[in-house]
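Recap from last week: sequence in, structure out.
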Amino acid sequence: PKWTSRTLWLKNPQSFPAHCLRSLSLATMAIKVGDAIPSAMVHDGSPGTKVDLKDLFAGKKGVLFGVPGAYTPTCTSAHVPSFVNVTADQWKEKGVEVVVCIAVNDAFVMSAWAATFGETSVKFLADPGSEATKALGLTFDAPPLLEALGNSRCKRFVMGLDDGKVVGLNISGEDGKADEDTYAAAALGFF
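Predicted structure tokens:
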């Protein structure tokens, strides 16, 4: 069998220095309720306009949701529309000031995709190098996905944030959560 540091660690975690274990666990753990959103740069409209997720959610209530890709069937027909169909007033009633969609696509694709939904309070941000996706620990790289879309993507998720802290989180396919558990109704329920 091919031995990697991960398989060796799983067989004998005491054999690794503490600093190696910290970096290994941080690299593979998904964000969870109670965590602060990490600093990660995403693109807003063009590659030259970058936004730090940590700064974007600092001092306010917000919703961040991720999709595997722009223009993909479920993302376009169900996931994003569930957020677009919530009015700015409905978000405001819950105290939500910012609603953000991220996907592992470039800024031009995300801008064009956003335009297909018309006027909306949802902000579409690009994560072309998967920086945010990796920082959140939400990389989706199952073999069928890689075959269909060509590279690792973002897991389908929704999180509620209050001053940069995660107050609610649903990830499709984890803890019994279905795609629908990552739609806007779940986000509204976080607040």
